[in-house]
């Protein structure tokens, strides 16, 4: 019989009605108690019952899409249970489906929320060890909070809200449908494959943009990609100054732009960027959702407004001054941006968007993939809902994995049926290498599925990028942009700063030469005869006043030269050895995001050894100078000739 007719929602019998599924050679019984449907196999002798709850809005009639998703999802779950029970995928156990309507009566607002909460509580009280559902993200969040608190795993095949990835609140929730966060993995995988070292992020100031950008920043850091800057836009909705936001981001030198936005915000950002000339041969724009037709329409509207402005035709005429808020919320953001810009140039769509703009969108076309073809063969007569099917199968394989890896399977089976293994029912438990009709069912640390995200030029399956053709960039070639801003070499004749540095350095050199000549000419004067470097000066004073055998207060220059010359010679020898054993190479030293200068660097296995030797030697000199300053601290009280002892000590 057709699975679409397994259950009559109007059936209120408590005794149950027996059915037979010819396709799976499976007999089962359906019964209803207190608006709850129970589906169990007929042959259960000697088997342990495992109860799985299904929470779906079976009686919701307002949305045809929700109705279709609910019925097809329920059919897929029942089909999966039939396969699990007939094939004994969980040895020694069978699964009973307990279905509860999360929308039993038409209601709005708080009343509908109350019904959803009551349905979830009622289902939990039936002793379920796992829950599948709900359809909407808002209702799923309510039930997932309760199941996670009670350590009951819950899987959804349709809830896509990124907030459900928060494991601090939804620790036992996972899902088989791709979320917006899957775009992050796809985009960063593509960035890594092209070798781009840095990215910039332009995100809309809404839940979608904020959550996606935060996820991008965290994952980019772990993958070694530098986020040079991130800029919000569309804060004021349709009347936002998008142009300023785009210019602010591009001024930071970002060349690979990840645009985290959707719908009007996304189209406005791309249109404004194209109008300002920021979609060019040096830039790459990566965004989400295949909106080519919508983008063409947006550019066409933008060009129409620009053309009217060139012809001096007024675009906006907000004569309804008393209803400014309504005008601001209803205005077309594309037309508003075109009316606000001071640059009156139209956009050549074909040449601007011919390459360099990549859009990621989840699509499913896996014909030729064996699990997918097998699923389609079985479900040719039914409404397929593969994500719901995978929910049930992943849960069953996870339960079986827990049982088979225990030391006492019988005891573990009973604990599982009684709901006493909640601490082990986290999303990682259900990573069992199950291959579903959509591909391998794998869950990340957030409980989100990692699956194929086809793009125009290839696909990404479980973060593994497969390109079937080379990416085409804005210049019409497959040459990969550098991803970094053009940098200017600072040479001796390139900037005013260079001339300033050269002037100061030249003045210092001339002053040093003049000082040397002055000392040589007046070397007999008392001032110059008494001048020395700090260590030599203090050493002279120390020798005079701390040597009991000395007969006169004179230390000859040759004696001091041996001390200071020895220090200089040691440094010179170390530096010469270091230079002879190292490889000197030129390196580019960045000054800013757009400028650099060429310097020299030492490369060799002994670099750190020489650095430590020179550092330790300098520390010894400082320690010795400090010792001399301390020993000669009171000399000047009795000998005015050495009255500069305080200045020398402070200098040390």
CATH superfamily of the largest domain: Response regulator
> What's the N-to-C terminus distance?
98 Å
Per CATH, what is the topology of the largest domain? Answer: Rossmann fold
* Lateral strand order in the biggest sheet: 1-2-3-5-4-6-7-8
Which structural class is indicated by helix and strand composition? Answer: alpha/beta
State the helicity in percent bands. Answer: 40-55%
State the total count of DSSP E strands.
Answer: 20
The CATH class of the largest domain is identified as Alpha Beta
Subcellular location: Membrane
Main location: membrane
GO molecular function, one term: G protein-coupled GABA receptor activity
Domain G-protein coupled receptors family 3 profile: 534-652
What features would you highlight for this structure?
alpha/beta; disordered N terminus; 20 helices; elongated; 4 domains; 652 residues; Rossmann fold; 43% helix; 5-stranded parallel beta sheet; 8-stranded mixed beta sheet
Provide an overview of this structure.
Helix 8 (292-310) runs parallel beside helix 10. This protein has 652 residues and is α/β, with parallel strands linked by helices. The strands form five sheets. The chain has an eight-stranded mixed beta sheet, sandwiched between helices. It contains 20 helices and 20 strands. Mean pLDDT is 78; it is low at 1-11 and 451-456. It has helices spanning 64-86, 110-125, 137-149, 181-194, 207-222, 242-250, 263-275, 292-310, 324-330, 333-340, 349-352, 370-378, 386-404, 409-417, 496-521, 526-530, 534-545, 557-581, 607-631, 645-651; strands at 17-21, 26-33, 36-41, 48-56, 93-101, 130-133, 154-156, 173-175, 198-204, 226-233, 256-260, 284-288, 357-360, 435-436, 439-440, 458-461, 464-467, 488-489, 583-592, 595-603. The protein folds into four domains: 3-178 and 367-449, 3-Layer(aba) Sandwich (Rossmann fold), CATH 3.40.50.2300; 181-360, 3-Layer(aba) Sandwich (Rossmann fold); 489-522; 532-651, no CATH class. It is a multi-pass membrane protein.
């Amino acid at each position: 019989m057709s699975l679409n007719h397994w259950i009559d929602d109007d059936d209120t019998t408590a005794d149950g009605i027996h059915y037979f599924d010819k396709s799976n050679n499976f007999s089962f019984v359906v019964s209803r108690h207190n608006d709850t449907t129970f589906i169990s196999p007929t042959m259960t002798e000697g088997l342990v019952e495992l109860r799985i709850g299904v929470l779906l809005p079976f009686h919701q009639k307002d949305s045809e899409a929700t109705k279709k998703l609910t019925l097809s999802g329920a059919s897929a779950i029942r089909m999966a249970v039939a396969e699990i029970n007939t094939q004994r995928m969980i040895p020694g156990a069978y699964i009973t489906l307990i279905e509860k309507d999360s929308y039993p009566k038409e209601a709005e607002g708080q009343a509908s929320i109350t019904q959803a909460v009551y349905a979830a509580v009622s289902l939990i009280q039936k002793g379920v060890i796992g829950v599948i559902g709900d359809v909407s993200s808002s209702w799923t969040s309510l039930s997932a909070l309760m199941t996670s608190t009670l350590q009951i795993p819950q899987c959804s095949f349709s809830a896509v809200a990124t907030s459900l990835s928060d494991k601090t609140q939804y620790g036992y929730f996972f899902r088989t449908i791709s979320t917006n966060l899957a775009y992050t993995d796809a985009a960063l995988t593509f960035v890594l494959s092209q070798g781009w070292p840095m990215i910039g992020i332009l995100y809309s100031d809404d839940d979608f943009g904020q959550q996606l950008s935060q996820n991008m920043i965290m994952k980019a850091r772990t993958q070694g990609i530098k986020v040079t800057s991130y800029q919000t836009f569309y804060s004021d909705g349709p009347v936002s100054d998008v142009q300023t936001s785009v210019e602010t981001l591009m001024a930071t030198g970002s060349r690979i732009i990840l645009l985290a936005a959707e719908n009007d915000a996304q189209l406005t950002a791309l249109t404004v960027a194209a109008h300002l000339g920021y979609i060019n041969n040096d830039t790459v724009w990566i965004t989400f959702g295949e909106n080519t037709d919508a983008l063409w329409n947006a550019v066409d509207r933008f060009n129409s407004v620009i053309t009217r402005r060139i012809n001096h035709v007024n675009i906006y005429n907000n004569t309804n001054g008393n209803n400014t808020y309504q005008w601001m919320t209803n205005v077309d953001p594309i037309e508003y941006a075109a009316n606000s810009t001071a640059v009156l140039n139209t956009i050549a769509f074909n040449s601007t968007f011919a390459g360099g703009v990549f859009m990621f969108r989840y699509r499913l076309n896996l014909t030729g993939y064996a699990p997918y073809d097998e699923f389609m063969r079985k479900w040719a007569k039914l409404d397929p809902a593969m994500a719901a099917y995978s929910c049930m199968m992943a849960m069953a394989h996870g339960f079986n994995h827990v049982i088979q890896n225990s030391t006492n399977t019988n005891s573990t089976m009973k604990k599982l049926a009684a709901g006493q293994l909640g601490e082990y029912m986290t999303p990682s438990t259900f990573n069992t290498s199950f291959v579903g009709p959509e591909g391998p069912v794998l869950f990340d640390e957030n409980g989100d599925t990692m699956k194929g995200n086809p793009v125009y030029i290839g696909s990404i399956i479980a973060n593994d990028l497969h390109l079937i053709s080379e990416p085409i960039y804005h210049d019409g070639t497959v040459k990969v942009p550098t991803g970094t801003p053009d940098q200017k070499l600072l040479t001796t004749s390139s900037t005013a700063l260079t001339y300033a540095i050269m002037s100061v350095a030249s003045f210092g050199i001339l002053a040093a030469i003049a000082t040397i000549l002055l000392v040589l000419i007046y070397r007999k004067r008392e001032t110059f005869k008494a001048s020395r470097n700090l260590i030599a000066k203090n050493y002279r004073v120390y020798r005079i006043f701390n040597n009991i055998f000395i007969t006169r207060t004179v230390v000859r220059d040759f004696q001091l030269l041996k001390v200071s010359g020895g220090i200089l010679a040691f440094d010179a020898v170390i530096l010469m050895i270091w230079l002879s054993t190292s490889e000197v190479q030129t390196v580019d030293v960045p000054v800013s995001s757009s400028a650099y200068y060429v310097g020299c660097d030492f490369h060799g296995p002994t670099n750190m050894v020489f650095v430590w030797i020179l550092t330790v030697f300098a520390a010894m000199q400082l320690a010795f100078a400090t010792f001399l300053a301390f020993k000669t601290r009171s000399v000047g009280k009795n000998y005015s000739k050495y009255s500069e002892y305080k200045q020398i000590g402070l200098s040390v």
